What we know:
Helix content is 45%, strand content 18%. It contains four helices and four strands. It has helices at residues 16-39, 41-63, 70-78, 120-137; strands spanning 84-91, 96-102, 141-147, 156-162.
Amino acid sequence: MAWQLSLNNTNGRLTLRDVEEAVATEMLTALKESIINLFGPSVAAIIMFKLGEVVGVRECKKMDITTVSARNLKILFSNVTYGRMNIAIYNDYNCEGRIHVKNLIDRGEQPPVNGDGGGVGCYFYKGLIKGATSALFKSDVVVHEVRCGLKRNSYCEYYFCKR
């Protein structure tokens, strides 16, 4: 199987992060498409959510972040190579926030998925945020997609809070 990596960099120079992001994105996109072909979009969304959750926990443990703060959340999500993620708002008092994500997994025409997400890749990011924040807060976290990049928005936005 030959992959064609899409490396978009405005300054003409590629960094190791650009290559890591492109490889991770292409692998997840190929996996997503294979699961959709085998089981359909709804089952693919569930599988991608669980995969994202596992990856989120792993990323949090890999970063070895022990205290919850806006700065640490920013460090955690800016180092994820599965998409472009950043903390838009974080309220330390209520342990809630919003994360903006540039969805790199869902491209072109996507099969619809029931629920608050627009595409199968949206559920991967939802799981990733849930896994990472649950591991960081050491508590169960609720995540909702409140804005979807596949629904005529420029990015996806996820709201998270402790249960």
